[in-house]
Specification:
alpha+beta, 9-stranded antiparallel β-sheet, 31 helices, about 50% helix
Length: about 1050
């Protein structure tokens, strides 16, 4: 053989054809492809948009309608009910939730999952039309319903503007100017300000003075509302010109209001408004939202970005613009950052890129170790080109660099290396056996290209259920599938084209060992020998081996029940939030006072960076997964940013002790920022029924069960405590005599206590309501209510209020009525202890049977929400697509082998990976969540791939005419190196992901599962093959 080789020059290369030969011969084309990948990839990488989390659309809109003066029940029946009814007719609607409180109806509409971001604007239009058509049918006194559809906008930069010693108005003016400037920055889509108070003009009318003159308050009010109006006075032609007429008489300043003459005919002398009233500018007495930053009153400026921009770049431009505006910033006004998405993204993306680089580095080092310098560098190069190639396609498909897409690249690393290893290994062994590089390359590529493609497609298909899943989780993880699809298909392409080409260059100088030729057995290393011995041992005791494995599997399935379950983990952003619910009916100013006390305590703690408090409603949505609370006076929230993540837990624990000890009356909830879709309480028991009293009784039982469980925290329900209402009893017949109507009494009372809006005052760009109220000294205590004087048109004088009322009642009312899908629903909420080790699902398992045991009266039902529902939905949508995915994968294996036995052998190894997974999750105390499920999917793809390549090798060995048994053993031995290497590179490549909370479950699953599965593939596949094909085992020599 060797002489033959020497005598014939290497001319037999000319008749070798195939893709490998094509790329080796046409150097220019190969170099071009490589350069396109290299340069295009680097360019694309810097041009990709960057986000922290993939965007998933929040498919909610709100319809807000105010109905001043109505009780919650009236709001529910007269406003909420008809609007809900109309909305429910839209086919897109998934659920309609509503909250009816005093004078306000807030309806949240959630669309079905299968409508993506592109369909939503059109759906919102239809929603608007539906709501607009209703306007005429709502009772008089109801204001126009507003449809808020930018409810899901994320304000990635949240700034707090504070100014000690500045009045509120000056702050507002500065913020207004700031807002105009910042909206012009490229890439910023809108800037919204929260925490503004409405400015008002107060007219404090003295009833004593009015009654001494004998003027009715209405006269004064009518004058005010008609005087300050823009009206058209026409125009006149003078000569050739046409000139507009505009009489003066509008107020130039608030003080001019005082010069209004208010005498009627028949009164003596001239009386001005300032003689009977004091006029001043001020702010709403009861604001609807108060924000403080580090203890001083603040306005929040939220900035949201346009779609598809590189957030980091826009962030830099934004900071730059802020710095330029610095010189116009009044001394003493501070602009502070509460949250800056660009900075977080920059940190996390560069962190990811570092992990990716580390992973690539680890892979290359491992290869250098195992395969020698040249092969290691060669495979490293191919790996690099494949990753860069992926970036080109990501740019083309507008996929941003974010948590999920970068994670996908890291998952793909191990698989990427796989294909190249098989080819390089084949070329090396071929040349060792004395063939030329071109021949060896062509042989191995021709032999493995279809099995490799099949295996690659299977690995990709394993992820299809996620990419194609309909719900928000599917949308969140959708890029995972796309990126894997691109990178794995590319890796198959590079393996059969560029790998042979570079191998040809890299292995040029290697001498082919002459003399031994074919007899040179590459497989006589220690590992190979030990493995061969062990394999033969197992092959002999085939049934025994199978039984042991089944026992192992059973044990791991049992062990799996002890693994913690968690849907999505919390973020590592060093921020924690405290929601505070004061007793229902608390004044917002009292809520704010409590928040300030808590804030003062927090400021004294160490490692606290800054603290933002908001009373009345949540902050602007600064992260996708933060769901701001609706408007609500007894509610407040404290957002505390720490210097580092480590300081978070200890402070939260300390804070909780402090709250328990000093504020027993507060309902509170500590929370961290979540990742992934979800939000709200983790455990929700929803009681559906019609009578509020019955609902409250059932809720009390549910709460008792929850309180009995030491691990359940933040227990509360959303109907809150009942509140008191004061009811003066109106005396119809008496009032008729005096010419006084019910609305006169209402107006009179509202003016006496909280003030009543009677007109608008225009000042430049601001419109201010003119509010009439009694002066401080006449705004009497509720006790003297009977002695108050009300104007009687019939008598033309003031009479005591008690002449038209017959006493007063106090009654209790439900302050909030919550409905879901047009039924009244009370939700009792709880959360697992955020500082403990417990996950929501274990708590749910404990509470569920106890709560379901409660006797429900007929017509009342219980359903579960919270994480139970959202993870259920996500898994349901996964499992609807999963069987299809697995069926498809199975079919591919059948097509590859053209038989049923082989695919079965390969598929039987997949469940065995569970043994490794369970061990890993339990050993590292990692919860099994959505990401771990992904890990398991990618794992099944890798295991199948190894099995396919191995079976393929067995077939080749059989064809070469060996005994069946020898063929199986030899094939297995020849596959040890590629299979082990691929596994080791993948396992080590996952190491950089372990510190990341989000990816840890997935990394653990893959590392342990794959480590175990590799050993299994190499032992189980041959053993099963022996059993299925009844291969005769030769007697021991």
């Amino acid at each position: 053989m060797s002489d033959l080789n020497k005598s014939v020059p290497q001319s037999d290369d000319d008749d070798v054809t195939g893709i490998a030969a094509y790329f080796i011969r046409n150097r220019v084309i190969s170099w071009m492809v490589a350069l396109i990948f290299l340069i295009g990839g680097i360019a694309a990488f810097f041009g990709l948009g960057r986000l922290e989390d993939p965007a998933f659309t929040i498919k909610d809109a709100m319809v807000v309608t105010s109905y001043p003066g109505a009780t919650p029940q009236q709001v529910e029946e007269e406003v909420t009910y008809p609007i809900e009814k109309a909305i429910q007719q839209l086919t897109y609607v998934d659920e309609v939730n509503s909250i009816s409180s005093r004078g306000l109806s807030q309806i949240t509409v959630t669309m079905k999952n299968n409508y993506g971001p592109d369909d939503l604007p059109q759906i919102w239009d239809e929603l608007r039309r539906k709501v607009n058509d209703l306007k005429g049918t709502l009772p008089p006194g109801v204001n126009e319903p507003q449809v808020i559809d930018d409810f899901g906008d994320v304000y990635g930069i949240l700034l707090a503007v504070t100014g000690d010693g500045y009045s509120y108005k000056e702050l507002l003016d500065y913020v207004d100017y700031l807002r105009r400037e910042l909206e012009l920055v490229d890439g910023v889509s809108k800037v919204s300000v929260s925490g503004q108070q409405q400015e008002q003009v107060f007219i404090e009318v003295s009833m004593k003075k009015l009654s001494s003159i004998g003027l009715s308050p209405d006269t004064v009010f009518n004058l005010l509302s008609t005087q300050n109006v823009v009206s058209d006075a026409g125009a006149i032609r003078i000569g050739d010109e046409y000139i507009r007429i505009q009489p003066t008489g509008e107020f130039q300043s608030v003080d001019e209001l005082g010069d209004l003459l208010i005498t009627e005919s028949g009164a003596q002398g001239l009386i001005f408004l300032k003689d009977v009233a004091e006029i001043k500018r001020g702010y709403v007495e009861v604001p609807n939202n108060i924000i403080n930053f580090n203890g001083s009153l603040a306005l929040n400026v939220g900035v949201s970005f346009a779609e598809g921009v590189n957030v980091v770049e826009v962030g830099k431009a934004f900071d730059h613009r802020l710095a330029e505006l610095k010189y116009q910033q009044p001394v003493g006004i501070e602009i502070s950052e509460i949250y800056s998405q660009p900075k977080e993204v920059d940190k996390s993306v560069s962190g990811f890129v570092v992990s990716l680089a580390q992973a690539v580095g680890i892979v290359i080092i491992v290869l250098l170790f195992f395969m020698g310098l040249r092969s290691g560098l060669l495979i490293g190069l191919i790996l690099l080109l494949t990753v860069l190639g992926t970036f080109i396609f990501m740019k083309y498909l507008a996929i941003d660099l974010q948590r999920i897409s970068l994670g996908a690249l890291v998952i793909a690393l191990g698989m990427l290396v796989d294909n190249a290893i098989v080819v390089v290994e084949g070329i090396l062994i071929g040349t060792q056996k004395g063939r030329t590089r071109l021949q060896a390359a062509t042989d191995i590529v021709t032999q493995t290209k279809w099995p490799l493609l099949g295996a690659t497609v299977i690995a990709v298909t394993a992820f299809a259920p996620i990419g194609l899943s309909e719900d928000s989780t599917g949308e969140y993880c959708g890029t995972l599938f796309t990126v894997l699809l691109i990178s794995l298909m590319l890796s198959w392409f590079t393996a059969i084209s560029l790998t042979p080409f570079f191998a040809d260059i890299f292995f040029k100088g290697q001498k082919i060992k002459q003399g031994e030729g074919e007899e040179n057995d590459p497989y006589n290393g220690v590992i190979f020998v030990i493995y061969k011995k062990f394999l033969q041992f197992c092959m002999r005791r085939a049934w025994f081996t199978v039984v042991v494995l089944i026992a192992g599997l059973a044990a791991s399935v049992y062990g799996f029940t002890f693994v913690k379950q968690a849907f999505f983990p919390s973020s590592t952003t060093p921020i924690f939030q405290l929601d505070v619910w004061m007793p229902e009916g608390t004044d917002i100013r009292a809520t704010n006072t409590t928040l300030k006390e808590l804030e003062r305590w927090l400021t004294k703690q160490e490692h606290v960076d800054h603290i933002t408090t908001t009373a009345g409603k949540g902050l602007q949505r600064f992260i996708l997964t933060y769901a701001p609370e609706k408007s609500y006076t007894p509610y407040g929230e404290i957002t505390t940013r720490m210097e580092n993540y480590e300081a978070l837990k200890p402070l939260m624990a300390k804070f909780r002790e402090y709250l328990k000890a000093n504020y027993p009356e507060i309902n509170y909830k500590l929370k961290q920022i979540e990742l992934g879709p979800g939000g709200g309480a983790k455990i929700e028991a929803r009681i559906i029924g019609s009578d509020p009293t019955v609902l409250r009784t059932i809720a009390a039982q549910v709460k008792d069960i929850m309180y009995a469980d030491p691990q359940a925290t933040n227990i509360r329900h959303d109907w809150r405590e009942r509140t008191q209402v004061l009811e003066p009893q109106f005396n119809e017949s008496q009032a008729r005599r005096y010419g006084i109507t019910k609305s006169d009494v209402d107006d009179f009372l509202s003016m006496s206590f909280s003030g009543m809006t009677i007109g608008l005052y225009r000042d430049g760009t601001t419109l201010m309501p003119i509010v009439a109220r009694l002066p401080e000294d006449e705004r009497i205590d509720i006790r003297n209510i009977e002695g108050m004087k009300i104007w009687s048109p019939a008598q033309s004088e003031f009479i005591p209020l008690q002449q038209v009322t017959m006493g007063y009642d106090m009654r209790w009312e439900d302050p909030i009525i919550v409905r879901k899908n047009r039924k009244r629903m009370l939700t009792v909420m709880a959360d697992p202890d955020i500082l403990g080790e417990e996950t929501a699902s274990t708590l749910q398992k404990r509470l569920q049977p106890q709560i379901e045991a409660i006797q429900m009266p007929p017509g009342y039902s219980l359903e579960w929400g919270g994480e139970y529902e959202s993870s259920g939905d996500a898994q349901e949508s996964l499992f609807t697509t999963m069987p299809m995915g697995y069926l498809f994968m199975f079919l591919i294996t059948v097509f590859l082998f053209n038989s049923i036995k082989e695919p079965l052998i390969v598929w039987l190894t997949v469940p065995l990976a569970l043994i490794g997974v369970t061990t890993g999750l339990l050993a590292l105390n990692t919860p099994f969540g959505f990401m771990a499920l992904l890990g398991f999917l990618s794992l099944s793809g890798m295991v199948l791939k190894n099995g396919i390549v191995l079976l393929d090798q067995i077939e080749i060995e059989m064809k070469s005419g060996k005994e069946a048994y020898d063929a199986v053993v030899d094939a297995a031995v020849s596959r040890v190196r590629p299979v082990c290497m691929a596994a080791i590179t993948t396992i080590l490549g996952m190491i950089p992901l372990l510190p990341d909370i989000f990816f840890k479950p997935m990394a653990v699953t893959i590392m342990f599962g794959l480590g175990f599965a590799t050993v299994l593939t190499l032992i189980v596949v041959p053993v099963l093959y022996r059993l299925f094909h009844k291969v005769a085992v030769p007697k021991q020599a």
